[in-house]
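Entry 12.
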Amino acid sequence: MTDFERKENDMKATRCLREEHQVILRVLDGFEIALKRSGEKGEATRETYGPFLEFFRGFADRCHHCKEEDRLFPVLEKNGVPREGGPIGVMLYEHKLGRALVAEMTGCLDAADAGEAGGVRTLLEKGGEFLEMLRAHITKEDHVLFEMADQLTRGDDLAALLADYSDAESEPEYCATYARCSRLAERLSAGS
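Predicted 3D structure (tokens):
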């Protein structure tokens, strides 16, 4: 890669978001392994799933989605990408669906941890739905929405967006959540 290509890549509207997707995907690989093991054993414990749920709430929702929903999506709308009936609306719906699935898993975690068959079953079902949905969601963002974003976001819009990302990443709550969840990601990623 030439210096020009490297600089151009660093200046893309979605570079940091794509990098975060890679972290999320590695954790999803670990989550899939945990779900498979739990299915085989017929048990799902707080010790196993609590850290995954904390990562999904903190890293994926709090840190990652705040940059998409509060920063990137408004810039795309300004540049003609529709929210309603368009890809932004689909992504927002899937963010909401992901939050609901994480809440359902969290809600049945006590029962699952106590060995209640219904709690285990619900956690594994909702976990499987979440896994499938989030992988497909990331694929759509990386290969459709983010491609549009990188083409549309140029000049002053790009400079402002990158500054907005930097502002978000310097907030104390963001920094603490990101650091905690990055440590969790190292532990939860498949192959770690």
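Annotation: The mean pLDDT is 92. The domain at 3-188 is CATH 1.20.120.520 (Four Helix Bundle (Hemerythrin (Met), subunit A)).
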